[in-house]
Amino acid sequence: MTRRALLLAALALAGCGAIQGVRSRLPPRAPQPGPDAGEWGALRDGASRQAKLYDGFVHRATASATWLSPPVREAASRRLAEWQAWPPADLEAALAAGRADAAQGEEFVVAFYTADKKDNDLDARPSVWHVEIDDGAARAPAAAVTAERSDATLRQLFPYVGPFDTVYRIRIPWTGAPLAGRPFVLRIAGALGAMGLDFGAQGAPPERPHQAP
To answer: Which residues are CB-contacts of 20 (< 8 A; sequence separation ≥ 6)?
Structure first.
């Protein structure tokens, strides 16, 4: 999508269809298909969780995460190909790159908010937070955490990203049993407390991220 198309899409999504009382006759320019439509929306939501950290009534932090499993990666590439009108060769290259990335370990996109900005340092070495996967039988810490630019493409792919979030891509080498179809926890823990993003646990349904305002 061009910058102009993205601007028009943002205006349409914000409800700016009328200017000085005159309704625009221009066709809608929001992305088609929409961010929540089809396989991508279903797979993303099924692979997303949210956890909040409180100290009494004081909100300390919120973590919203999407597990980039192979099916989620593929669906994301196909949605971007639709939005940006990729030629078939570019889509095939993106799918191959996604498979290569998946072979390096488990990855998550994490939108992270902390009440004190100094505590939002998941990519620092050392960080005030420890990030790991725990499936009850094995645990593995994050090996790479990279801050991502929260641009229009990322916010459309992951609508729960809010204006005060920092977005990270987290890679965790995993040598335990394959995670697909089994419960596991992505844990973010530190001196301020711990948040467990529970993927596939039995019992009450997990809290999935809400769409950002």
So the answer is: none
Backbone angles phi, psi at 149, to 5 degrees: -75, 125
Q: Considering the entire predicted model, what is its pTM?
A: 0.80
Q: Give the H or E element holding residue 107.
A: strand 106-114
CA distance 164 to 113: 6
Give the whole-angstrom CA distance, residue 39 versus residue 136: 30
Indicate the SS3 state at residue 116. Answer: coil
- Please, are residues 202 and 182 in contact by the beta-carbon 8 Å criterion? no
Q: Is the pLDDT of residue 79 over 50?
A: yes
Interaxial angle between packed helices 70-84 and 88-102, expressed in degrees from 0 to 180 and rounded to the nearest 10: 160
Q: Is 151 helix (H, G, I), strand (E, B) or coil?
A: coil
